[in-house]
Q: What sequence folds into this?
């Protein structure tokens, strides 16, 4: 079996198991290859040919068996900050709960214990905003969204985050 055939097979199987967004290192592991500069070049070649698509720095999806588009942006966000606590907050969460009437189009706002950063993906822009708050102060105000597979802020936490980040609060409906 060629490396290309292995790539197709593992990406197809991963989607069936609920995956769909993978790091280069994960793909290398799944097809039994060493993650190296040569392997990264292999991925670049198949991205150029349209077999896989680069969705963010170091993250890929299969173009033949892409992830569910309604949850793909959340999977990308989790992979981008997999080593730290991150949760949906600010305008994205307040719109989700109906506390603001505006809907952030094509943008997901996330609070993270990691670095700030903005990432353009085929599914929208992901904006990470760093917080210095201790995890034990944040954790009681979060809940896990089973559908999205990511933590979300309760309304009180999202409003507090909005204030802490000195973002526009005029859009709050109450």
A:
């Amino acid at each position: 079996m060629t490396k290309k055939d292995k790539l197709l097979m593992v990406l197809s199987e991963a989607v069936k198991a609920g995956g769909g967004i993978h790091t280069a290192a994960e793909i290398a592991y799944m097809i039994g290859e060493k993650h190296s500069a040569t392997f990264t070049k292999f991925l670049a070649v198949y991205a150029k040919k349209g077999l896989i698509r680069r969705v963010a720095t170091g993250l890929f999806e299969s173009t033949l068996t892409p992830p569910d588009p309604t949850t793909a942006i959340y999977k990308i966000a989790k992979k981008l900050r997999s080593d730290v606590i991150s949760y949906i907050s600010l305008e994205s969460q307040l719109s989700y709960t109906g506390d603001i009437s505006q809907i952030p189009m094509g943008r997901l706002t996330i609070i993270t214990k990691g670095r700030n950063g903005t990432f353009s993906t085929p599914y929208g822009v992901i904006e990470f905003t760093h917080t210095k708050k201790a995890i034990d102060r944040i954790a009681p105000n979060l809940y896990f969204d089973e559908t999205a597979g990511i933590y979300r802020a309760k309304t009180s936490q999202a409003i507090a985050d909005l204030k802490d980040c000195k973002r526009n609060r005029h859009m709050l409906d109450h």
